[in-house]
User: Fold these one by one.
Assistant:
Number 1:
Amino acid sequence: MRSLDVSTPAPGIRLVARLHVDLCRLASAICRPS
């Protein structure tokens, strides 16, 4: 993964990255029923 924290043009990118991580976790939970 690339670190988006280096010279980001928009401060919202950090929020998008966090949201992306949450979506990945959610998708993983849905794909893998525990």
Note: The radius of gyration is 13 Å.
Number 2:
Amino acid sequence: MEVLSQSELQSLQQQVTLALQEDLSAVDADYDITAQLIAADSHSNATIITREDMVMCGVAWVNEVFQQLDERVAIDWQVSDGEAVKAGTVLCKLSGPSRSLLTGERTALNFLQTLAATATLTAQYTALLEGSNTRLLDTRKTLPGLRLAQKYAVRCGGGKNHRIGLYDAYLIKENHIAACGGIAKAIASARQLHADKPVEVEVENLDEFTQALDAQADIVMLDNFSLADIERAVAINQQHAHPAKLEVSGNITDARLHELKATGVDFISSGALTKNVQAIDLSMRIS
């Protein structure tokens, strides 16, 4: 089971607070005017179920929603993050004040349906890479405000995290190269500024690829390369005095994953894991 880092836990609390504030003028269930139609002393039980097959992700976010709203709400989880579950499965059982259950319902489900969708799509992609040493990476193409949440969801689905932001690794792209005066100059500057940070260069053709290898990049991203050029790049890399880790990106589809895993590249990165997700169909039923 994946473990949330301290920074992810802090981000989680902020995400939930902001999400609740979108529904409430303050993080206070009393601001839910529809819930006020229910007697204050009313108590209910509820279940959250999935209407489709999915990979579970979002336990801590649901817990935090009700923790911030009303500590009297008790949640009994039937599944864990990273677990594959079938349609119709009860994910958790809840009990507590009826008003609080209803007030937190949509916010809790919004987190759950989005994070489970990310984990589920990631699991589908990673399954297509079985039998190879190629690892699936996410990107920074995340939903605004949910970067660390979706990065966690990718791990729950069996994927790996690329850099978290602009601070923890170099990714030198076309515009950086142009502004620096070339690939070699960009890499040299990166080494001088932060020698401890990994340096990755995105290249668009085999000539740029060779330049990146000669300048001793740690990782080279082959952006929208044809299959033939990817195979050629792998061969060049294997014979080079300073081989790099190779990453493929661009137009990553189910069909392409099948052919790419046979090339021997180290990584395949896909923005679709976090930006093209379709929310999982969930339901909370109160009794």
Note: The chain has ten helices and twelve strands.
